[in-house]
Design a protein that fits this description.
heterodimer, A: 226 residues, mainly alpha, Cytochrome Bc1 Complex, Chain D, domain 2, 8 helices, elongated, B: 217 residues
């Protein structure tokens, strides 16, 4: 009987030495003990497809695609890039028909000044939140262009506090976020149009803060600044 | 007539029964230890086509998780970034690095970088990233300290008991919403603010489902 226990102990030692312990690093794909329905015949986001030539399950949107079927009955304001005389009705937010809000441009194609959305504290806070994710690495927390990437060779990042950018129309800043400029690429995939306006509002706040005078501080707070 | 079995054989049936119990116990322990995700999945660290270093980008440089995984707050999926996201910086920085050749190629052709998926929920599990990160559940709870990983590995088991552990008692795992993407932050409970966490769970109507259909739909 003793030998049975010896054998068992030996098998345990053998098993542990072959299998190792929990949490050990391995580049081998995990073994699935019961793989029932773990991998179903359906596509998940960013998955692979053998059906399409490029191997992607996510299909690129064909050129010229127009969204259809949402927000019927909401007529666009005239002169905002969509001809309502043809009888077409759509939700302007869905079709992005409003040039000011979705391209930062006026009807004549020049960049618009001001904001198409109401500038509230909530909007500026949202702008700060987004800014610290997407803009901060290059433009820096102060908007002076001294982000972390500067020390790695991204030298051309301008400061928001240059006169050129202080005078720039809001619509043009919006357009730069949407399409990029020089070494900056488009951030349209990361910031929705409304988030872009929030970031523009926060950039304006940074510029104002950088050039603030004592008159901008409420009377009650001035004591703490001495 | 001589005896066939020695006297000690009288105890043998009992000894065999005891041995079978021990054997059963050892087998059960072995299966529990080895045939569960805590062993099978944890530690999976595949070789990626680009040796992207999270400890450098997310840790040292302090780039927010959402810079690359941009859809995590509004989508069920936390998206893997397109090559353009890499090129936002790497069109200027380290433009000739051979390690980034795959990324440049992907940016040029539009074919995706063949990243190896590490965290793979079974297809019958419906997990939504946005609902978790928007309710104070940090990335670190399920993915571990990715900001300290040179090469990402599967850090937590993602077994069903792992999910239920939090679903049964969300207040102990919840962070201040502004700490969700700060992987070095502490949960409210760890900060001794369990009452705040319970208030958050109540005010924000955090009601993690414990029924089967909550996740298996």
């Amino acid at each position: 009987m003793r030998y049975a226990y010896y054998t068992l102990a030996f098998l345990v030692v053998l098993l542990v030495s072959v299998m190792g312990f929990r949490g050990m690093k391995s580049s081998r794909p995990p073994i699935e003990v019961f793989p029932d329905m773990d991998h179903q015949a359906k596509y998940k986001p960013q998955a692979e497809s053998k059906f399409f030539a490029d191997g992607r399950a996510d299909r690129p949107i064909p050129a010229g695609t127009v969204p259809y079927g949402r927000g019927r009955g909401v007529e666009l304001e005239p002169g905002h890039g969509f001809d309502s005389t043809t009888g077409a009705f759509a939700d302007p937010a869905y079709l992005r028909g409003d040039d000011f809000r979705y391209a930062g441009k006026k009807a004549d194609g020049t960049f618009a000044r001001g904001f198409p959305v109401e500038v509230t504290e909530t909007l500026v806070r949202r702008g700060r939140n987004r800014y610290m994710i997407y803009c901060y690495p290059c433009h820096g927390a102060l908007g002076d262009g001294n982000g972390i990437t500067k020390s790695y060779g991204m030298l051309a990042t301008p400061s928001y506090h240059d006169d050129r950018i202080r005078q720039m129309a809001e619509g043009e800043i919006f357009n730069t976020i949407t399409h990029g400029k020089n070494t900056m690429f488009s951030y349209a995939d990361k910031l929705s149009p409304d988030d872009r306006w929030a970031v523009v509002a926060y950039v304006r706040a940074l510029q104002r803060a950088h050039n603030a005078s004592i008159d901008d501080v409420p009377l009650a707070e001035r004591g703490g600044l001495k | 007539m001589s005896k066939i079995f020695p006297k000690s054989a009288n105890a043998l049936p009992l000894q065999i029964v005891i041995f079978l119990f021990v054997l059963g116990g050892v087998a059960a322990a072995g299966i529990t230890y080895y045939a569960t995700p805590a062993y099978l999945r944890v530690g999976y660290q595949p070789v990626q086509p680009v040796p992207f270093d999270h400890s450098l980008h997310a840790g040292q440089l302090g780039i927010d998780c959402r810079y690359c995984h941009a859809s995590v707050e509004k989508s069920a999926t936390s998206s893997v970034p397109a090559a353009q996201t890499c090129m936002n910086c790497h069109s200027v920085i380290k433009t000739t690095s051979p390690l980034l050749e795959v990324v440049r190629e992907s940016y040029k052709t539009g074919d995706p970088v063949p990243w190896v998926k590490i965290h793979q929920a079974p297809d019958y599990v419906y997990f939504n990233h946005s609902v978790h990160v928007n309710r104070g559940v940090s990335c670190v709870e399920c993915h571990g300290k990715v900001n300290e990983m040179t090469a990402v590995y599967h850090a937590k088991s993602h077994s069903m008991s792992f999910c239920l552990n939090c679903h049964r008692n969300p207040a102990t795992f919840i962070r201040d919403p502004q700490d969700v993407f700060n992987l070095d932050s502490k949960t409210l409970a760890e900060q001794g603010r369990l009452a705040d966490a319970q208030k958050f769970v109540h005010d924000w109507k955090v009601k993690p489902p414990q029924s089967c259909s909550g996740c298996h739909r």
